Amino acid sequence: MTTASGPDHRPGRPVASPDRLFTRIVRGTVRLTHGIASAGLLGCLVLVGWSVVSRYILDAPLTWVDDAVAFALVAIVTLSAAEVTRRDEHIAVDLLTSRSGPAGRRITGILSALATILLCLTIIWQGWASAGFARIIGITLGGTLEWPVWPFLLMLSAGAALIALVALDALIRLILDGASAPHDGEAA
Q: In the chain, count of helices (H) and strands (E)?
């Protein structure tokens, strides 16, 4: 924990330390998965473009592309959600926090991080259990590809695990430093 000086800093007020190892690991992991999701989105764009050319110019429709892109979107969304959470760019209702002082925002931040972690743990557990069940009985998704359901359920669990890591990092920072993690490009 460090202190800062400057016109907006009050003496004795702790400032978040951006060099915490756990924060760096979470940030790197979430950026990596977001990069994979971004590449997947570009891949989907290429597939859809190829499908359109195939259908309307070559008169040879690729019926599997629609299903593949729909399934890929599950992975894209679950891998991107943690980065959105880390940047604090998700949809939020700030009715209470906008009217609270620093202590109130800190308390609501801690409660929010705890609630997020609990919800994510529930999703991880349910996704894992549902994936195991779907794999045992062989549930597949309808359509032209008929892929098994269980990998998609595990993807939801993986996305929830990433969000839980981000929430845990925020919780640690709020408790130890009194502030959430600085966003990219933001000085601590």
A: 4, 2
Residue 105 has what pLDDT? Answer: 83
Q: Read out DSSP for 72-88? A: HHHHHHHHHHHHHHHTT
Has residue 120 got a pLDDT over 90? yes
Q: pLDDT tens digits, residue range 162-175? A: 999 999 999 998 99
- Under a CB-based contact definition with an 8 Å cutoff, are residues 159 and 79 in contact? yes
Distance separating alpha carbons of residues 20 and 180, to the nearest angstrom: 12
160 within 8 A of 120, measured Cβ to Cβ: yes
